[in-house]
Amino acid sequence: MTRLDLVRAVDYVPTPTQATFLRDRTPTRLLCGGLGSGKTLTGAWAALAAALENQGRGDGMLVAPSFPMLDRLVLPAWKRVVPRELIRAHRKIERRYILTTGDSVWYGTADVPASLEGTNLAWFWGDEVRYWPLASWQNMIARVRVRGARSLQRIATSTPAMGWMSVVFERGVADRRLTRISTRENAPNLDPSYIPTLEAALSPRLARALIEGEFVVLEGAVYAEEWQPERNVITWEHDKRFITWLSIDFGARRPSVLLAQQVGDTPWWDHRTGRQFAPHALIVLDELHPDECPTMRLIPRVRELLAGRRVDQIACDPAGAARDQASGLASVELLRAEWGDIVRYTSDPLDTSIPAGIDRVRGALCPSDGSPPRLYVERRLARADASYRGLVKALAGYAYPVERDGRQVSDHPVKDGTYEHAMDALRYLVTNSQPRPGGEGRVYSYSWGGGGG
């Protein structure tokens, strides 16, 4: 039974591009698609087909970037496609399914490359490989080596990202194939509002990547196209009607703090200025970027910055669980001791990924559908001294590295020790306060009581 015959035998009709990928016999192949393009489900079908083609000839493996993504995305897709009669046992402690063919389908994560060593496989399926370390991809490639397998298969599905993924699949190597799929092709299987919502959340450049599935070459300033002071710089005074956020990038040498306000979950018209704000729009109205200031000494400085204003939510780096150099205590716990249980951070790779966070900031600065921005900076911050390492200067100066041959092979900006701290604080703010593109995430529900101030 071919891959296409297999999926036609059940209640699943692949799109033309999905069907092309399922017919493909290239040993190493990637389905590179936009959000909502059906790539994860297609990957699960390709994995099942590989298991049936190699029945009795070798094990397979399902790999996600992390355990949350394994539980939320990969395993549900696998359970949806695999026939119950094909499963003899599911041994959760061993992290494997035992098939009636005698083979095993193992599952694991790519966040610790060494954990993928030691297995001998006939095939694997890796989902969202853009979030994988290169070492994990190399380990999995080396695992597919069972002698006598009918069809050695290395199957990958992902949204696009520059870096090792584009190098591996865009250089025309004979035994590798890249198949692109647009979210628009899968529109009949999506809610009618899904693609318009994506277009509103993404910048034009990011729409090419996260809707059309294209590798977007990133060069020069990170926000060169999206950051436009004439559009994103506005006049704003603190308004008690709206949520107040702090966003903190910890660091004993050069921490950064942003103070912002956020409008509600419906459009808001400011009659004073005649400006319409999109739902969840953010306005950064103050900032703090001291030198040589560990968290214990940073907290009094933040109190001064607040100047009696209440703070409702605090976003920070998940690395804040590390110890503060001055006190020996976790930075997050120092914040909670001061302001209570309003500190927000996430360890989900979809949220901690720098490229993914940059994508969200871009979409907030300049939605691709032409709707109003969801990220502004108060005008006072645009008049900072030339020597000040503030947000406005960082938005203009934050840049990607460029290789000597002119080819950019990384989607991580330069860690310059100057601009990166304000940019990290901005990512934490947007990531923790905005829905994920396509409605995959959530905005925190706010409690108007108990905030510090």
Number of domains: 2
CATH class of the largest domain, anyone?
Answer: Alpha Beta
- Beta percentage is 15-25%
The best one-word shape is elongated
Uncertain spans: 1-9, 439-453
Count of DSSP H/I helices: 15
CATH topology of the largest domain: Nucleotidyltransferase, domain 5
**Rg, please?**
24 Å
What report would you give on this structure?
It is a single chain. Helix 14 packs across helix 15. An eight-stranded mixed β-sheet has the order 3-4-5-2-6-7-1-8, with helices on both faces. A seven-stranded mixed β-sheet has the order 9-17-14-11-10-15-16, sandwiched between helices. The chain has a two-stranded antiparallel sheet with strand order 12-13. It has two domains: 3-190, 3-Layer(aba) Sandwich (Rossmann fold); 229-439, Nucleotidyltransferase, domain 5, CATH 3.30.420. It is built from 15 helices and 17 strands. It has helices at residues 3-8, 16-23, 39-53, 67-81, 134-143, 164-169, 194-201, 204-210, 229-232, 295-306, 331-339, 349-352, 354-365, 391-397, 419-433, and strands at 28-33, 60-64, 87-91, 96-99, 104-109, 123-127, 153-158, 176-181, 233-234, 243-249, 256-262, 268-270, 275-277, 282-288, 313-316, 343-344, 375-378. The chain is an alpha/beta fold and 453 residues long. Helices cover 30% and strands 18% of the residues. It is elongated, with a radius of gyration of 24 Å.
Itemize the secondary structure elements and their pairings:
Blueprint: H1 3-8, H2 16-23, E1 28-33, H3 39-53, E2 60-64, H4 67-81, E3 87-91, E4 96-99, E5 104-109, E6 123-127, H5 134-143, E7 153-158, H6 164-169, E8 176-181, H7 194-201, H8 204-210, H9 229-232, E9 233-234, E10 243-249, E11 256-262, E12 268-270, E13 275-277, E14 282-288, H10 295-306, E15 313-316, H11 331-339, E16 343-344, H12 349-352, H13 354-365, E17 375-378, H14 391-397, H15 419-433
Parallel strand pairs: 1-7, 1-8, 2-5, 2-6, 6-7, 9-17, 10-15, 14-17, 15-16
Antiparallel strand pairs: 3-4, 4-5, 10-11, 11-14, 12-13
Helix pairs in contact: 3-4, 13-15, 14-15
